[in-house]
Amino acid sequence: MNSLVRRPLGQTGLAVTPVGLGLAALGRPAYITLGRAEDLGDDRDIAAMRSRTWAVLDAAWAAGVRYLDTARSYGRAEEFLAGWLREREIAPGTVTIGSKWGYAYVGDWRLDAERHEVKELTADRLRVQLEQTRALLGEHLSLYQIHSATVESGVLDDEDVLDRLRALRAEGVAIGLSTSGPRQADTIDRAIGAGLFDTVQSTWNLLERSAGEALARAHEAGLGVIVKEGVANGRLTARAAPAALLAAARERDTTPDALALAAVLARPWAGVVLSGAVSAGQLRDNLGAVETGWDPELEERLAGLAETQESYWSERGALPWS
């Protein structure tokens, strides 16, 4: 049953649902989410991961999810998504799809790869990866984002990159960027000032709240806000959640991940929060956020979970690929 209502994503003209599906954990065998051995087992060959991706996409579609988020670096995620769209005969525009450029997947489908992805925010990388994305997603591509832009990377000052993005925007594709690291707020403010970007995708969760004020400014400026890592790569799920979150979830007859995502949806600037589910069951739990209430008592009670951004990103950086 379709339980989600579509709403505008900033001033992009695109429609999204409050919860979207991110494919970072589905398109490649290894990722930094806690508990992947339990969630996925040992069978992670390409056929098995494609089947799993399609099953989660089917569950998301049936539930009414209408924002899907992928990237060139998510292994075969774009390929899996393209095959699903074709097989299910999903018409362009029926679901809003965002992808990203800037990282390349180099893990060779190995769990023990020395490196899984390599970052390069150059005009040449943009040109090559945009061609690859369009070859797979074609007219389904609604939003194209710089992957993990930072002020220090220089990408926001690269006129060749910015000119190529302006040209793509003139063709009707919305332009965005994702942010990462302890200086997310600086990057968001630079993006607002650039006058080019339609969306920003940032990490915000009960542990890492430092980008909140900047995201409010982005929303006020008309940018659509996409929130990633709402359950902190598994740290806010039942397998690792702090005791205070577990207790609050039990009292409200919900799951800790649903309550964590409900905290995101309670922010007036949040357009869509991404689920990183790798099974229909995880997705169902995540979607519970839409019906889960959030109130001042919870806000005060769980405020103490917040970490400094330096501490949060240091711990995130230490998470193993598994």
UniProtKB/TrEMBL annotation:
<dbReference type="InterPro" id="IPR023210">
    <property type="entry name" value="NADP_OxRdtase_dom"/>
</dbReference>
<dbReference type="Pfam" id="PF00248">
    <property type="entry name" value="Aldo_ket_red"/>
</dbReference>
<dbReference type="InterPro" id="IPR036812">
    <property type="entry name" value="NAD(P)_OxRdtase_dom_sf"/>
</dbReference>
<feature type="domain" description="NADP-dependent oxidoreductase">
    <location>
        <begin position="54"/>
        <end position="296"/>
    </location>
</feature>
<dbReference type="InterPro" id="IPR053135">
    <property type="entry name" value="AKR2_Oxidoreductase"/>
</dbReference>
<protein>
    <submittedName>
        <fullName>Aldo/keto reductase</fullName>
    </submittedName>
</protein>
